[in-house]
Amino acid sequence: MPDFVDKVFDYTTYVVQGTASVLQDGYSISKDALQQTYDVSKNIGGTMVTGAKVVYGKVQENVPADIPSMVGLGIAPPQPIPSSQVTVSGLIYDNLTGFISKNISSIGLGVSIPTIGYTAYQIYSYYIPYERHAKRLKSRYRYEVVLVIGSMNSTFVSKLVNDLNMRGYVVFVTVSDEKELKIVEEINDTDVRPLFIDFTNDSSVRSSLLKLGQFLDSRIENIAEEFYYNFRGVLAIPDYSRLPKLKNLQELSAREYLRVTETFFLKFNSLLYNGVLSFIRESNSRREVVENYNEQNIKGGYAKLLFINFSVVSSNDNRRLIHNLSLETNKLFYNILYQENALSYRESTYRALGSCCDSSMIDMSSLDITLHKNSSSTLIPEYPMVQHVLSYCNKKMSPKDIHHKIYDLLNQQWLRKRYVMEN
Q1: Which domain of life is it from (predicted)?
Q2: Which of 100, 172, 206, 380 is the most buried (most CB within 10 A)?
Q3: What is the pLDDT of residue 32?
Q4: From start to end of 119-228, where are the E strands?
Q5: Do 184 and 115 lie in a common domain?
Q6: What is the number of domains present in the chain?
Q7: Radius of gyration (Cα) for the chain, nearest Å?
Q8: Domain that holds residue 125
């Protein structure tokens, strides 16, 4: 996609995304919320008026109509108005109506602000569960599938896989040795499935990915009706945590350089061009068929390809040669892949309107997450109140913030080329 289109995306993606969401689903929920708030405001106003009338009637029944003269106290009564025309109930009524007329603006704000807040909450509560939880069938069975390309030896990957599973996705995760396979098996959940891949040759990669393809083409098990899976997308997550710490090129051996190249370039290239890109394209082309079989619209855009670069930077560590080389290699690889396969502006517009004209084009983005490590912890602990206070006061990230960002990217209609999270 040309650079000037990326700049247009940076300024318009949120506006267009919001407009598309309103056109598709927002009208009905907004109408319901507004109707509810109108009814609430009307009931409150009716109750206030009814209460005022009751008080007014009771005062007229129980309070003497004439105000006694204060002559006995040595004070002359008011001359212009006869005492027979002045009542306590009348004074209350006059004061109440005068107060309302003088403060009509404040009263209006007092009613309108809660009404607007209630409407916003209704819309928010409608959309957020969809964006950050996998959509399920009407029978509550899972049908959205995510492939995670990463090492389960990484704490970041293992926590993300568990969280994706907890939020309703069927998660396939690549494993390349017995240790990674054991970590997946210990989860003991049929919705988290290992995809064992030997990266030493292309034929082994293709045969392993064929198992994923057969799973996506098969009907969902244990359901009498004929329902099918929807491939939500791919998360490619390189593992930067196990790289050697080197300060200069003289310390870099040929063997270590080949290992890094194989891990951070050939591995992803082999997976993408031996089946993963095909899964994404086929998912886009069969989207309408899956919707018809499942009798349920697929929301959250088309299948995505997301590159996630998660790295921890120590403030006093300058031995980052291999890390920087690997990161730059991945960025270069992603840029080339983006130029060859990313959506055009025209295709993005069609898909935002619910139509896929060219399924060979892939909706992709990159998320760079950098944690600057110092004497304190890099991530906020998993306590809601602590997260809320520190994330806004100290601009620290929590695992929940990172996971929410990934969920949002998986379910957005429009994606920019690159996103950055940094504490």
Answers
A1: Eukaryota
A2: 172
A3: 53
A4: 144-149, 170-175, 192-196
A5: no
A6: 2
A7: 32
A8: 1-69+81-129
Same domain, 120 and 197: no
Burial 207-231 (b: 16+ CB within 10 A, else e): ebbeebeeebeeebeeeeeebbbbb
Full-model pTM: 0.67
Distance of alpha carbon 114 from alpha carbon 317, whole angstroms: 52
Plot region of 72 (φ>0 → left; ψ -120 to 50 → alpha; else → beta): alpha
Q: Are residues 152 and 275 in the same domain?
A: yes
Q: How far does Cα 335 stand from its chain's mean position?
A: 25
Alpha helices in 253-320 (DSSP H): 254-261, 267-271, 277-285, 287-294
Asked if residue 134 belongs to a domain, the reply is no
DSSP assignment string, 36-92: HHHHHHHHHHHHHHHHHHHHHHHHHHHS-SSPPP-GGGT-PPPSSS-GGG--HHHHH
Asked if residue 38 is part of any domain, the answer here is yes
Query: DSSP class of residue 167?
Result: T
> Is residue 135 in some structural domain?
no
Same domain flag for 234 and 91: no
* CA 170/CA 191 separation, integer angstroms: 5
Asked if residue 173 and residue 104 are part of one domain, the reply reads: no
Task: Assess whether 102 and 195 both reside in one domain.
Answer: no
- SS3 of residue 187 by DSSP: helix
306 forms beta bridges with 235, 365
Backbone angles phi, psi at 241, to 5 degrees: -75, -20
What is the block-wise mean pLDDT of the chain (423 residues), using blocks of 10 residues?
A: 42 43 46 52 51 51 48 50 55 67 66 74 56 83 94 93 94 92 92 89 85 91 89 92 82 79 76 89 92 90 93 81 85 92 89 85 94 60 46 66 92 91 86
Angle at 374 between CA 370 and CA 377, to 5 degrees: 80
| Six-digit token string for 105 | 């603006």
Q: Which two tokens stand for residue 291?
A: 């919707």
202: exposed, middle or buried (Cβ count in 10 Å: 0-12, 13-18, 19+): exposed
